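Researcher: Please translate sequence to structure tokens.
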Amino acid sequence: MNTVIFRTIAPLIVSTMLVFSVYVCLRGHNEPGGGFIGGLIAASAIAVLGMASSAAEVRRALRFDPLGIAGVGVLLAGSSGMLSIFNGNPFMTSIWLYLDIAGSVVPLSTPMLFDIGVYLVVFGTLASVVLALESEDGENL
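Model: Translation complete:
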């Protein structure tokens, strides 16, 4: 699909999808959504960008290897569960930290770190698969 209209509108579609994927990921530990669905939406955005341009251009735009992003996600998700062990609780027990920033309380939690890790794993894995499928023969598999 290499039409002028699609190549022109693809960056707008991709940026909207990426912002929505982050929103879905960050609201996921309190409401429906989460890292898995957010990662799927972000990987779909990468697929759209790959259809509008080429897999090589998308890899340059990402700046990091998608499987490296997935590896960071695994480390983040695993370490969020390990934090509870250092606190004397069973593995994957939630830990909450309430920060007072400019007069409002911002809650941070290990479930949010876990969701972000899952987001990165799903995004990195599926982006790697999509880019491998969209690449031409011998192009940076």
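Researcher: Any highlights?
Model: Residues 11 and 49 are 7 Å apart (CA to CA).
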